[in-house]
Amino acid sequence: MKLLDIYARKQNQLREIERELERTIRSDHVMLTEASLHLLKAGGKRIRPVFVLLAGDFGTPNAEYLNHVAVSLELIHMASLVHDDVIDDADTRRGKPTVKSKWDNRVAMYTGDYIFAKALTVITRVPDPQIHRVLSHSMVQMATGEMEQIRYYYNTKQTIRDYLLRIRRKTALLLAVSCQLGAMAVGAPGRISQALYSFGYNAGMAFQIRDDVLDLCGDERQLGKPPGSDIRQGNITLPVIYSLRNPELRDSLLADIAMIRAAGGNMDIGPFLDTVRAGGGIERAEDLANRYIQKAIAALKPLPDIEAKRNLEEIAVFIGSRNY
Amino acid sequence: MISYKVPASIQKYLEHDLILQYTELPKFPAGRAGLLRLFLQSATDSPESLRELYPMATSLVQVALDTHDLVGEEREEGGKVGRMTQLRVLAGDYFSSRFYQLLAQAGQIDWIRHLAHAICELNRIKLQCYMRMKHLKMGAEEYVQSMVSIRSTLFQTFSILFENPVRQIWPEVLKAYTRCEVLADELHKAESAKHWKNSWSYWYILDQQAREKDRALLADTVPDEERLKELLDRFGIVHLLRTMLEESVRLFADKLAALDMPRLMPHLARELRDAILPFERLVNGMDPSYCSQVTQ
Predict the structure, then answer these.
(1) Contacts of A143 in chain B (CB under 8 A)
(2) Residues A131-146: what's their mean pLDDT?
(3) What predicted TM-score, i.e. pTM, was given to this entire model?
(4) pLDDT tens digits, residue range A76-123?
(5) B198: pLDDT strictly greater than 60
(6) The pLDDT of residue B290 is above 60
(7) Number of domains within chain B
């Protein structure tokens, strides 16, 4: 089964989620609605809602709670993107102008805060206190991770462990709790929600590593933003860390990174990208991503053999090979 | 003066080393938090733990949202967004997540929802206010009212916890207190060019159809201190603000006098009455350090 088939299988629920997303962010303030809808209409993979829905197949069906969890997690993700674009000073996302570039930084801040609050109004329709403990704990970890990332900007001494801890908080946690909360919302047993958390976590790690590889290897049409955006921001990703370990490339890369830093990212980074692409770091990063995919698939083993399990496995395989 | 000590459990969030290193934070709303705690103690049967939790969580999210007000269009050399801006974005998000966690850990799901609705409304007000300022359409009195709304909307949510007549009185007392707070801060802003842009005096002078050369001064982000002082003196800004504060203090005192809370204990009544003192001292020109006191 292809990824599109999985989306097709859940299309009624996903359509309802899409409608609910739009209903939720509408405000009687025109600009707040426009800015929020701008991001929503730019699309996205909706991977978090899909994870919630598939995890929801492992318990007693509860479409209402699943919808609330899926909508709120997507809104939390959207709010973080609006603010990330201010942090990264990004002009485009998914090929469209960001909220901060179409309006300005302050509008982006208010829009992000508004969307986040809307997410809380939705998730609180689910009365299970444990769901809120899990989600709020993850959000604190994500916010802490984003701040900690500042310490590692242009830090060429960071270790692979530093990088993995960072992407765990940046990406893997929200995907992990998407799976976990989907299962919890339908009353699945703890061992099931834990297995799904582990699946989401490992798939999320692979997703971010793949994202970081694509940032170095993809083109602007694929990425919806210029390649090399990470290093321009000072974000040293796994392929670069691997390449820095190569004694033949290290000095050249350190010099390139120092120049990029001095130029505030505003320079031709073609030579830097060529060095990283040729240095074996990409392949090693892809290898690690594949190992995370295998771990994600292994995490599914204890789950009952239903279609959702096979779908999750297929999504994991897709994450490992995606090129957009 | 209302005493409110920022609990150690949230002080540590506010003192995260990266935040301290890169940015200053907005004032902690200690006065409003203290006022809310007094009302919760006096007029509800809420457990002591919640009387502490509600002001704490509300103040934390107020600081989160106010921190995001500090995000502007600052650029570092080379045109990049600076660390200070990045940390302001991240610090606000971090405080918001802690606000959610504080209430979630206590199982206060209804209050997460009530405050989330208030946050939506607050952002609507903030955006409206920001756009009015950006297009120079803000009026002086409209500015004061907007600032009072921005500071009181979250705290006002707690009306539903009270029974009448306190339920009706709480928003009135809160707004009267907040108006004093806003005007006291405006007096402080009128002392220095650094905080003058978009202050009450800025909008007041713009309202008064300022002369051409005054308008040039209004356009400066940080105008020359001496020229600004001359302008403020010519418009009698400090006197006007003191008069407005005096009226607001009287209104606040009237609201307090009308309070007849059945369970109001003498020491709480005294503390409420004392809330007025720093503003009275400011009106009389006796205590210019008000602004730093309320943040302790």
Answers:
(1) 90, 93-94, 96-98
(2) 96
(3) 0.92
(4) 999 999 999 999 888 888 888 999 999 999 999 999 999 999 999 999
(5) yes
(6) no
(7) 1
Query: What is the domain-level CATH number for residue B117?
Result: 1.10.600.10
Report chain A's C-alpha Rg in angstroms. Answer: 20
Chain B: closest CA distance from residue A69 (Å): 14
Three-state DSSP at A43 gives: coil
Residues of B in contact with A177 (CB under 8 A): none
Whole-number pLDDT of residue A215:
93
Give domain status of residue B1, yes or no. no
Give the Cα separation of A185 and B121 in Å (integer).
Answer: 28
- Considering the domain boundaries, does residue B37 fall inside one? yes
Q: A143 and B123 in contact by Cβ < 8 A?
A: no
DSSP-assigned letters across all residues of B9-40: HHHHHHT-HHHHHH---PPP-HHHHHHHHHHH
Cβ–Cβ gap A264/B78 under 8 Å: yes
Looking up tokens 């699945």, which residue turns up?
A: A188
User: Mind telling me how many Å the CA of A77 is from chain B's nearest CA?
Assistant: 12
| Separation of alpha carbons B201 and A14, rounded Å | 52
CB contact under 8 A, A150 and B90: yes
CA atoms within 13 A on the CB side of B12: 3
Q: For tokens 């006002």, what's the residue?
A: B156
In this prediction, residues B79-107 reach a mean pLDDT of 91
**E strands, chain A, where?**
92-93, 96-97
**Interface mutation target, options A24, A87, A88, A233, chain B, most CBs of B under 10 Å:** A87
Domain A3-321 annotated CATH 1.10.600.10: yes
Range of the domain at B163: 8-293
Q: Would you state the structure tokens that stand for residue B251, as one six-digit string?
A: 């209104």
Nearest CA distance, B58 vs chain A (angstrom): 13
Instruction: Say whether B130 and A29 touch across the interface (CB within 8 A).
Output: no
Whether residue B86 and residue A87 make contact (CB cut-off 8 A), yes or no, is yes
C-alpha pair distances (Å), A4 with each of A7, A200, A311: 5, 19, 11
Q: What is the ipTM of this complex?
A: 0.92
Higher pLDDT, B34 or B271: B34
Residues of A in contact with B91 (CB under 8 A): 147
User: What number of helices (H) and strands (E) belong to chain A?
Assistant: 18, 2
The Cα of A109 is separated from the nearest Cα of chain B by a number of Å equal to 6
- Report how far residue B96's alpha carbon sits from residue B102's, in angstroms, rounded to the nearest whole number: 10
Rounding to the nearest 10 degrees, give the CA dihedral for residues A124, A200, A230, A320: -150
Contact A120 B77 (CB under 8 A): no
